[in-house]
């Protein structure tokens, strides 16, 4: 199973991803934007606006690390998906990058998005809380939610998408109930058939 969480910033994806990883005993792929941000020694005050080379390099690094980890683990819970990468490229890079580069980025995202077994969409229903990294601008959150959910519906077939809401525990239980209720054949991936009965 390759499970990715998608949605705007501050909706509770990280908390849910960690809870699911613990319950299922599966590898967790952390949000790579934070990892790359730290690896590249960016500070919170570093504004990439007006720095096309740095901004482009940052977005490519985030995507490449996401794909590298997804391919390495094979089965995982991912806090973010390549759908999110595509949405953030559209928001921050599309108007400032050559069309050929943007198209190459989108194609990489599209190919990788086809490999997810399940996408968990988390809508914006909780108050934004500052964490030193994410924006707390509600309008920006709603803008990114629209972009991400629109791309998600275009890249992933409906039967591979679920929406969760409520408390963390309610969200976890909704995901586990969905997995337990699906035919095993839906989770056949790369020749491996995952039996959920003993895990839930």
Point out poorly predicted stretches. Answer: 184-200
What would you call the shape? globular
Largest sheet, strands/sense/barrel: 5 strands, parallel
Query: Considering DSSP H and I runs of 4 or more, what fraction of the residues is helical?
Result: 40-55%
Termini, distance in Å?
Answer: 14 Å
Can you write the helix and strand succession as a string? EHEHHEHHEHEHEE
What share of the residues does DSSP label as strand, in percent? 5-15%
**How many DSSP E strands?**
7
Overall SS class: alpha/beta
Average pLDDT score: 85
Tally the helices: what do you get?
Answer: 7
Rg (CA only): 17 Å
The side-by-side strand order for the widest beta sheet comes to 2-3-1-4-5
List the helices and strands and how they pair.
Layout: E1 2-6, H1 13-24, E2 28-29, H2 32-39, H3 52-73, E3 76-79, H4 82-92, H5 99-113, E4 118-121, H6 138-155, E5 161-163, H7 168-180, E6 188-189, E7 192-193
Parallel strand pairs: 1-3, 1-4, 2-3, 4-5
Antiparallel strand pairs: 6-7
């Amino acid at each position: 199973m390759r499970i990715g969480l998608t949605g705007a910033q501050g909706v509770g994806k990280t908390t849910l991803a960690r809870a699911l990883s613990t319950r299922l005993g599966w590898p967790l792929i952390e949000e790579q934007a934070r990892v790359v941000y730290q690896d590249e020694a960016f500070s919170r005050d570093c504004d990439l606006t007006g720095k096309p080379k740095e901004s482009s390099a940052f977005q490519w690094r985030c995507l490449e690390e996401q794909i590298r980890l997804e391919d390495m683990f094979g089965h995982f819970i991912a806090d973010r998906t390549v759908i999110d990468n595509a949405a953030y490229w559209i928001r921050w890079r599309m108007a400032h990058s050559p069309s050929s580069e943007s198209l190459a980025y989108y194609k990489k995202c599209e190919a990788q998005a086809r490999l997810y077994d399940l996408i968990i969409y988390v809508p914006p229903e909780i108050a934004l809380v500052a964490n030193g990294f994410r924006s707390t601008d509600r309008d920006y959150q709603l803008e990114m939610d629209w972009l991400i959910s629109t791309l998600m519906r275009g890249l992933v077939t409906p039967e591979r998408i679920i929406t969760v809401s409520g408390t963390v525990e309610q969200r976890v239980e909704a995901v586990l109930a969905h997995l337990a209720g699906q035919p095993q054949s839906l989770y056949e991936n790369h020749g491996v058939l995952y039996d959920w009965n003993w895990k839930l």
